[in-house]
Amino acid sequence: MASGDIKVSILDCGAMTADLTWLLLKPGRSIRPRQQRDQPTEWATVPTHCVLVETPDGTILWDTSCPRDWEERWGPTGLQDFFPYEKVSDDEYLDSRLKQVGVGVNQIDYVVLSHLHFDHCGNADLFKDSSAKLICSDKEKDFAFGFDGLFTGAHLKTDYENLNWDTVSGDTEFLPGVTLLQTPGHTPGTMSMQVDLPDTGTMIFTSDAVYMGESYGPPTTPAAIVNDMGQFYSSVEKIRGIAERTDATVVFGHDADQIHQLKTVSNGGSYT
């Protein structure tokens, strides 16, 4: 890879399904008017993805999606009944996607977690015995290890407690062309990732700082899973400001329409 070249591959990893209210608190959609009080709950497809960023200075895997043993692992939490990872084929699990792009776990230098929720950290243990460094926000690590018991909300210690974590603090140019942005609200330490590509231009991967296009707006629409609503709104506007300044392509965390419009591994595409 030539100096300055960066390649981004979006690894689409199938989808969970869930009550739309978890993702979108929007009048007329997830919040029903009285005229629709008798209509059934609207369940939505919730796609999950990871991002492989190959640079001359190192290879990053952004997030790790859901594990193959999701139903068993999530059993103590009950989350498997609210976010079943049931729209996934064998070739869509993360380990299969990495094989498809010809990248082994020992070829990844950094596994950067946007946050430590079960659907983003679920395969972090694939890298337990590899040379990859596991990275999250310092505030995320403090929260994820700081509560009593096995789980709280969508933080499940089984995913991450036996792994070694390095942390970043504040907005950080992690590698040349790759900046980690602090975008808390969804969780105390949620991060987004900005990648500046020579051909495509800037891409911002929001993770769950922004679930979907309808969340982004404007106006910004919140969700049921938000740790701090004030931080959530501030982070969305931070992302919007950077995106407007850089004319960025903004890739949302779980947008069922957008994922099909992007170049992904399943359609043979990547970004440079």
Automatic annotation (TrEMBL):
One Pfam family cited in the UniProt record for this chain: Lactamase_B
Cofactor: Zn(2+)
Keyword Membrane: no
Annotated ranges, domain Metallo-beta-lactamase: 47-254
Xref: SMART domains: Lactamase_B
Xref: InterPro entries: MBL_superfamily_lactonases (IPR051013), Metallo-B-lactamas (IPR001279), RibonucZ/Hydroxyglut_hydro (IPR036866)
Keywords: Hydrolase, Metal-binding, Zinc
PANTHER family per record: 102 KBASES UNSTABLE REGION: FROM 1 TO 119443, QUORUM-QUENCHING LACTONASE YTNP-RELATED-RELATED
Family classification: Belongs to the metallo-beta-lactamase superfamily.
Protein name: N-acyl homoserine lactonase family protein
Organism from which the protein derives: Actinomycetospora endophytica
